[in-house]
Amino acid sequence: MGTTAKSRADQVLVSDTQEPILAAWQYGLGRTAVWTPDASGQWTAAWLSQPEGAEILRNAVSWIMKSPMDDSLKITAAAEQSRTRLRLEMPYEEGIKQVTASVVDGNGQEQETVFSMVSPGVYEGWLDTAAEGAYVAAVGKEKEDGSWEYANTGFFISYGAEYDLTKGIGGTELLRQAAQRTGGRVLTSGAEVFEGQIPRTMAEHDLQKILLVLAMLLFLLDIALHRFTLLTARLERAAAALSLPKIGGKKGNPKNKAKAAEKAEKAPETKPEPAKEPEEKKEGLSTSQKLAQARKKRGK
Fold first, then answer.
1. Residue 110's beta-bridge partner residues?
2. Which of 56, 146, 262, 289 would you call most buried, defined as having the most Cβ atoms within 10 angstroms of its Cβ?
3. DSSP class of residue 37?
4. For 121, what's the count of Cα atoms within 13 Å in the CB-facing half-sphere?
5. How big is the CA angle at 178 (ends 85 and 202), to the nearest 5 degrees?
6. Edge-first strand listing for the sheet containing 10-14
7. Same domain, yes or no, for 78 and 45?
8. Domain boundary, last residue among 136, 162, 188
């Protein structure tokens, strides 16, 4: 079975028949490497036993791992009508043939951008979109010997200049445009704030839960007053000890009590009249008893 390297792949190792043994290339924002022999030592036992063989495999694995953002690269974006101008700044290096970037937006769409040098270490390119958002770029540098170096960086595209209302107009004009677009009005004095009719607002609050809880508490209290008579009796005794009316009675007025006591002191002292015996009892007396009662009356 034969293998063929991709057109953009870097062939690190080739066999005596010019077939790739180890090839690597940039794929989007990531890196890919292919090792065509085995790694178990079935065909490469003698080669992997050497320090150089193990070091090549370690370097290949390290190369395809995710690389951090390169702080030495800086990309700024300036959106126009349908495209975005990219400005790349990086340390100047001699012997760079071409600088490209694989740009990926937030939706995973990928675009290729070719930069051209405008000054030492400064490159410019175009991106066929002006959509706002964050972008990630894998910048590739092709050297004169045909090798490539890659580094990751990012940039952000903001709104275009034609949408910036703060440029070229004054504060009053800006307020007028904002009021026109939002349906408002521009106030020229503080008194205009209170002009016009204030719209009536109404709000509804659901009291069902509150009333249900209150009804349940009152229901339990009613059961307690009817079932626990001992508690009611104790409350009545406590009210009597404090000279308070019983539960359910009317509260007396202290002034009326004082007046009643004063009248009782001023009233003349009268002897109580003897209780009259009922007629039925008199009729049941004998003749001798009646005479004795008559004598007593005369003696008085």
1. 104
2. 56
3. S
4. 7
5. 130
6. 10-14, 20-27, 30-35
7. no
8. 162
The count of domains in the chain is 2
55 pLDDT higher than 90? no
Asked whether residue 52 falls in the same domain as residue 79, the answer is no
User: Could you identify the residue written with the tokens 């009053």?
Assistant: 172
Contact between residue 169 and residue 142 where contact means Cβ atoms under 8 Å apart: no
What is 153-220 written as a DSSP string?
A: EEEEE---GGG-TTSSS-HHHHHHHHHHHHT----SSGGGGG-SPPPP-------HHHHHHHHHHHHH
Q: Please check whether residue 285 lies inside any domain of the structure.
A: no
Q: Is the pLDDT of residue 259 over 80?
A: no
Torsion from C-alpha of 74, 78, 84, 85, nearest 10 degrees:
-60
pLDDT in tens, 164-196: 655 656 677 778 888 888 888 888 887 887 777
pLDDT above 90 (res 87)? yes
Does a structural domain hold residue 194?
Answer: no
Question: Domain limits at 118?
Answer: 74-162
Q: Let me know whether 158 and 78 are in one domain.
A: yes
